[in-house]
Design goal:
Elements: H1 6-25, H2 32-36, H3 40-53, E1 55-60, E2 63-68, H4 70-90, H5 99-124, E3 129-134, E4 137-141, E5 146-147, E6 151-156, E7 159-163, E8 167-168, E9 172-181, E10 184-189, E11 195-208, E12 211-222, E13 232-241, E14 244-249
Parallel strand pairs: 3-6, 4-7, 5-8, 6-9, 7-10, 9-13, 10-14, 11-13, 11-14
Antiparallel strand pairs: 1-2, 11-12
Helix pairs in contact: 3-4
Length: 250
């Protein structure tokens, strides 16, 4: 079962509204409000899809194995639970359950996770450079040779475009600490560069090469320092909160 897109739900919404109009023309008393009252079903379907898509089969070295995506599974579980909760209330169950407490707990949990990741990332990073973008755009690097240094890059309601394809990578570890809050960061890396990647997305998305994570909460770690043949490697710590980070090979 493939990962359902937002276009699917918009299309389903329009289809149901159109069906309600046709049924009214045929004499059935069905209002758009009646159709809209079943909106929790969309969350239930989406949650089930995310839960199933968190287990994917891939072929590697002639063998087929199942890969588990814990972040997608957690996001699907939360979305399914929200839909099931409101659907149960619609049919008269769990009427005494206060939904405002549920939302408060969920919001508090997301804020704690986001705060922990920000504090942890800054504690690990020893930076000598970096840039930030606030309601604007910043470009870093390009086609001309330049020296890359460890640094923190922060985009808040803005964008950062980084091109590392012509960068001179120093020996040992070079750390890039990337944070996007309601903004975006695009990073282009050379294909032969060893990379240790660790990313967390909360209500956002992060793409690292061919790996994509997104949803309510998602996390992934790829690579080890020992994989660098020449001792040079790039460590990327990426966090996206209601934003997006795209790291790809040029």
């Amino acid at each position: 079962m493939r990962y359902l897109s937002g276009r699917f739900f918009i299309g389903l919404f329009l289809l149901l509204l159109g069906a309600a109009i046709v049924l009214n023309l045929l004499g059935f008393e069905i209002s758009a409000r009646d159709i809209l009252s079943y909106w929790p079903l969309l969350l239930v379907v989406a949650g089930l899809d995310w839960l199933l898509s968190s287990f994917r089969s891939r072929s590697a070295a002639g063998e087929r194995k199942t890969i588990f995506y814990p972040g997608r599974f957690l996001s699907g579980l939360i979305i399914f639970s929200i839909g099931a909760l409101y659907l149960a209330r619609k049919f008269g169950y769990l009427a005494d359950l206060k939904t405002d407490m549920f939302w408060s707990i969920l919001l508090a949990a997301l804020l704690i996770i986001a705060g922990f990741n920000l504090i942890r990332g800054r504690a690990l990073a020893e930076r000598s450079g970096g840039r930030w973008a606030f309601l604007g755009g910043v470009k870093v690097g390009g086609s001309s040779p330049w020296k890359l240094e460890s640094g923190s890059y922060f985009a808040f309601m803005g964008g950062i475009d980084m091109d590392l394809t012509a960068a001179e990578i120093p020996d040992g570890e070079t750390l890039l600490d990337l944070t996007a809050i309601m903004g975006g960061i695009d990073v282009k890396i050379p294909p032969d560069l060893a990379v240790v990647y660790e990313g967390t997305a909360i209500l956002g998305g992060i793409a690292f090469k061919d790996q994509e994570d997104g949803g309510i909460v998602a996390s992934r770690k790829i690579g080890e320092p020992g994989e660098a043949a020449d001792g040079k490697y790039l460590r990327i710590q990426a966090r996206a909160f209601m934003g997006g980070i795209d790291i790809k090979e040029k």
